[in-house]
Amino acid sequence: MTSPIQELLQGRQVWIPVAGRSMAPVLTPGDEALVAPLRSWPPPTGSIVLLVNATGRFVLHRVCAHDWFWCTTHGLANALPDPPVRRSSVIGVALRRRRGASGQGVRLLHISTPAAGVIGWAVRSARWLRARLPRR
């Protein structure tokens, strides 16, 4: 039997169980998210992606900023965004959510939240400033 992550890496859509509360109220423990392989880069700002974070755990978080090599995500219930992850760490995009294993799937909207917009602006501004400041 193959794991859902293996199936995802083989190009199939899979239902991934949600265990944490970082995406509440959109995704809560006991929900499942239908995740499709990420076919192109970058994922839309505001979309929910499956990624491997810096500690090696799989998380579903909303994209708040990205460039060609990095992606910054944010759990809706978290106070701060996650540290940026490499492009190769983002392995799928969530399409639907269902409450409980037998519930009907509900489409997840890829809408940028105001917080995602502000965080994205701050990240882009910091990169712009860093590129223009003299090197020590």
Give an overview in words.
The protein is an alpha+beta fold. It has a single domain, classed as Umud Fragment, subunit A, CATH 2.10.109.10. The protein is 18% helix and 32% strand. The chain is built from two helices and eight strands; from the N terminus they run αββββββββα. It has helices at residues 4-9, 114-132; strands at 14-17, 31-37, 48-52, 58-66, 70-74, 85-86, 90-99, 106-107. Strands 1, 2, 3, 4, 5, 6, 7 and 8 form an eight-stranded antiparallel β-sheet that branches. A hairpin with a 5-residue loop joins strand 3 (48-52) and strand 4 (58-66). The longest helix has 19 residues, at 114-132.
Short précis:
This protein has 136 residues and is an alpha+beta fold. The protein has two helices and eight strands, in the order αββββββββα.
Helix percent band = 10-25%
What's the total count of β strands? 8
Low-confidence stretches: none
Task: Examine the coordinates and then state which fold CATH places here, giving the name of the CATH topology.
Answer: Umud Fragment, subunit A
Q: Main β-sheet: number of strands, strand sense, barrel status?
A: 8 strands, antiparallel
Q: What's the CATH architecture? A: Ribbon
Query: What order do the SSEs take from the amino end to the carboxyl end, as H and E?
Result: HEEEEEEEEH
How many domain regions? 1
Give the helix/strand class.
alpha+beta
Going by CATH, the homologous superfamily would be: Umud Fragment, subunit A
Radius of gyration over C-alpha positions, nearest whole angstrom: 16 Å
